[in-house]
Every structure is written in structure tokens, then in C-alpha cells.
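Table 4 source record.
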Amino acid sequence: MSMKIYVPRDAAAKALGADEVAAAVKAEAAKRGMDVTVVRNGSRGMVWLEPLVEVEGAAGRMGFGPVDAADVAGLFEAGFGAHRLALGLTEEIPFFKSQTRLTFQRCGVIDPLSLGDYEAHGGLVGLRRALEMTGPQIVAEVTESGLRGRGGAGFPTGIKWKTVADAKADQKYIVVNADEGDSATFADRMIMEGDPFTLIEGMIIAGIAVGATKGYVYIRSEYPDAVEVMHRAVNNGRALGLLGASVLGSGHVFDVEVRVGAGAYVCGEETSLLNSLEGKRGVVRAKPPLPALQGFLGKPTVVNNVISLATVPVIMEKGAAFYKDFGLGRSRGTIPLQIAGNVKFGGLYETAFGLTLGDIVDKIGGGTASGRPVKAVQVGGPLGAYFPRALFDTPFGYEEFAGKDGLVGHAGLTVFDDTADMLKMARFAMEFCAIESCGKCTPCRIGAVRGVETVDRIAAGDPSAMPVLKDLCNTMKFGSLCALGGFTPYPVMSAVTHFPDDFARSKEAAE
């Protein structure tokens, strides 16, 4: 009797011993003379349960976790039934069951490198529909869905596509921004490692929509597993006719190339990324011209985040009205919340926009891992604002967060308990900006260095330093060329505004 056992190849699972578990499963099966197929799937996103081993059963996939290599023999002995690590049906685990999985519907379910498995679970339906439509019809569908850039800016995807589609040029490009550098973000990595074909499918649809025949995936060098999986997925897609001279025999030309960055945070900004992609120094370009008109190699270019493009297939499959039905206000569809920091249940949770920050932290995340009270949550990476519990009633949406001087960004949430020193966090924000600045503009290059010095003056009890810090933040916010310098004031000023005691204590200590 054959048996199918799933062991994730996701980087988070591997960091927790998944490779050793997979090797132990194969060794134990061989020792027992059992016919076992080990599938290296992506992650379901419940990081506290990794490595999460799943076994195909009559009722569905049964989960066991977190599994150590030393547990494997016992699991076989128990026939993968009653065991202390048994979690029941994976899809019934409360954290997973309460999600609305659209973009991540296949992540952790399929073999990421099998195009056949991808297709068997609904893949390519959106592409086949797109192949029967005109470019303007596809652009209209994506526009109508309300999809906005999931990388942080929240710019309407359809409008960007229309700009590129309307541009006249002999060559156009699709560029995927997979330089996921924000703290507490891992959605891009998870989708590339767990369901790479959904990203490739989204790129092809975008190419058909705007008239582009070549795509690039720019991945950060810190993601070797994602780089490997994307390379293999592209090669498999090309071999099976998904990519190349005739996409699925349609006559449409589209091919993909994977490029790897060199570790610069600023290359997550689209124009710096394009410079890096061209082999130049990764510094910010002045806009205009927009990349949509003069992007990669001076040609019209769609630059979208991984999640933006990976969401396009489900929009094309289900229709704009289906996707638009989720969410609130101008934030339509679902968002993959990445919950990290000092939190009990860290991981990826895909849900419609609209949950309150408090529900996300307390009900989904389970509060702090330390058991202490939550003091602050930083939303939107290292440039996001720190929200205190007083703002936990804020609904998760672009405009709703902006109204409270915050950012949704790439939807990463870092939780801090009451031991966090917010003055030190404000200093870290300035220090981070100083280190990662590309140096192109003065407010960011010089302002961040002065910012570190000014926060140190506040810590030393200098009463004249606080007005200087506020003025400096105002200059950086409105004078910086890109969001690196422009958004650094968000964590700094939110710490000053919402946690004044941490700044006052520094003065008292100095006295």
C-alpha cells in the first residue's frame, strides 16, 4: 500500500529541521519496506507548527507538528494516527480554517514544481480565460477588481497596466519586485517557494494585457530557496510550453528570467530595482519619467510586487466582481497578513481587508509569546508606524491606516510587549535609514544620520532636541526622493506621539 507524506521545503520549515525530517521519513520507510512518496510542498503558513508533516488520508490531509527527526519513528509506529503531535485535519486547525485563501489557495497544498499538480488544483484557468480576451479587456477586469499594489504603495494595478498598455514601444517588460526586505514580511517568499506557477501565470496574463513579451523576477539574495524554486519552475514551464514562443500554443510570446539582487534594501524601491536590474548601482531615479513609460532599458515596464501578480490568476478565474466583493472601502480583496515578533501564533494569515488591528493581534496572533501585555505593533515593515493599544480598533485598510498616520505597506506586523523601549525603536528607525540610504538625496542621506544623533541627545536629557527631531522628520517626509527617507518619520514620530513616557524617562534618567 502506497503512502503520500508531505514535508515542507519552505525556508522557515527548513530552518526548523524540515530537511532532516524528510530524510528521516525516507529512511524509516525504507527500513520498514514501505512504499512512501515524500512530497516537498510549500508551507501552510503556521510557523509555530513547522515542520508540519501531513499524511494523505481518507478524510483529507492529517497534520502532525512540530515534528523533529527523532519523532519520525514514533509516527510510523503509531501508523500516523493517535500521537502526541497529531493535529487532526490540517484544514480544520482554527488558525487555518478561519482564513479566506485566494492568492494562497494552493500554497502548502501542492508540489510547487509540478505544473500538473498546479493545474489539477485550479491553476491556468485564469490564463486560459485571458487568452480568449483582448488586452484592454484584461486590463479592465483587473481595474474593476480593485486590486492595488501589495508591495506597500497601494497603487491601483489596473491603472498602472493601462499606462503601459497605452504606451507605444517596440518592446515592453513585466518586472516582479521580489526584493522583500521589510521586517516581518515573508509572503513573497512563501508564494515563490510554495506556488511559483501562480506568479508565472500572473506575469503571463500581465504580458498579454499590456503587450509585453519578456518578464524578470528580481529576488533578494537572502532568499536562496526562492531563487532555486523559481529557476526550476521557469525551466519546467518552458519545457512544458507554458513559457516561450507560444504560450500554451496560443501564439503569444512570453518568457521569464530570474535575477538576484545583492542585498540592498533600497532596491525594493522600483526605480532602484530597475537600475540594479540593468547592472547599474541601485540608486533611486527621479520621477518623472514613470517606469510605466520609461522603465527597464528605457522601455514601458510594469513593476509589480509578487503578491499583486500572484493574485491576478484568481481574479481572472473568478471574475472581478468575485474578488471585489471582499474587503472594505478602497481596499478590495484579500491581504496576506504576516504576523511576527513577540507573538504566540506567528505566520501568514490571508483574509479580507477590514479586520481590526486588535482582532489580528489578540485573536489571530494570540497575544504575545512572552505572556506580557502588548505595548505596540509596527505595521508595514521598518518604515511603518508603531500603533499602541489605543489604536487597535483601526480596521486593516490603506485609507484607514493612513488616517491614523500609519501604513499598511506589505502587511507585515511586528508585535512588541511592554518591555520594549520606544526611544530605542525610534533610534533604530533612523539608524536603519542611515545604513540603507542609497545616498541620492540629502534629506535621507544626511537627515537619518542627524536623526540618530538627535535621538541620542533626547536620551541624554537635552530639552532642545525634541523640536529638532520633529523638524527633521518633517523635512525627511516631504523632501526625500523616495519612500525610504520619506517614510522613516512614521516609526519615529509614532513612537514620540504614542509613547511619550519612554522619551520622558530618558530625560529623568539623565537628571
